[in-house]
Write a structure and sequence with these properties.
- This protein has 10 helices and 6 strands; from the N terminus they run H-E-H-E-H-E-H-E-H-H-E-H-H-E-H-H.
- The protein is of the alpha/beta class.
- It has a 6-stranded parallel β-sheet, sandwiched between helices.
- Strand 1, helix 2 and strand 2 form a beta-alpha-beta unit.
- Helix 4 runs parallel beside helix 6.
- It is globular and about 50 Å long.
- It binds NADP nicotinamide-adenine-dinucleotide phosphate.
- The site of NADP nicotinamide-adenine-dinucleotide phosphate has 25 residues, from strand 1, helix 2, strand 4, helix 5 and helix 9.
Amino acid sequence: MSTNEQALFLPADEVVLTNVKRLGLMGGTFDPIHQGHLVTAEAVRTGFGLDKVVFVPSGQPPHKADRKVTPKERRFLMTELATVTNPYFEVSRVELDRTGFSYSADTVGFFRSQMEKDSELYFITGADAIMEIITWKKLDELFSQCTLIAATRPGFQEKSMVERLERQLKPEYLSKVIPIEVPAMAISSTDIRDRVALGRSIKYLLPESVELYIHKQELYIHG
Ligand code: NAP
């Protein structure tokens, strides 16, 4: 049975890692997922020669205890809809099925435990999130297991991020944060939510399937 056929018969929470030596983990709340996320993941996959990128929607984001986040099953479904056309993309339920807060170090550890010792892991997320990395838990664990890719939006001051990380991180970790500029990250989840609430079009900002799902489920109409 081929890897693709195996994937069809596996429960949705299992990601096939056979022959995967270089893995990207795309971490985010994805509320909703949009073209900027997809372009970022594909740019990192091709640029870093990754065998696969697994999207990992956050379960209970530790830094968002006070903000209303769309129910996790809906964010998971939107992520599945958005990634289904790319054979190198998969979606993991690992953070959704975990009780308590989702820490990236635990997620990276989960995937690393299923891979060969010499495999390489890249945790991809937004540069704005990485700017707050000093507040993340288990940083030593995280940096010992992966390289971080920070996707920046147009206009993002990369220099100020580097200066900030230089002040906050151990010197040996600085080279393990790689910024990449992604023009498509001009699109943002916040802007999409605001547009829906204002009755404005979100067409072409995200895959059509996700756009239709948002309208059908009446997501974001109250902001
Ligand atoms: P967020 O605060 O919602 O987003 C911060 C910024 O990063 C936003 O501008 C966001 O843009 C962008 N962004 C988020 N995910 C992205 C991605 N995969 N690619 C490109 N840009 C992205 O951050 P979040 O989504 O909740 O968290 C990001 C990741 O960091 C998650 O995997 C989360 O679990 C992890 N994290 C871990 C800890 C910890 O371990 N303690 C703490 C905080 C965050 P959009 O709104 O357009 O996506």
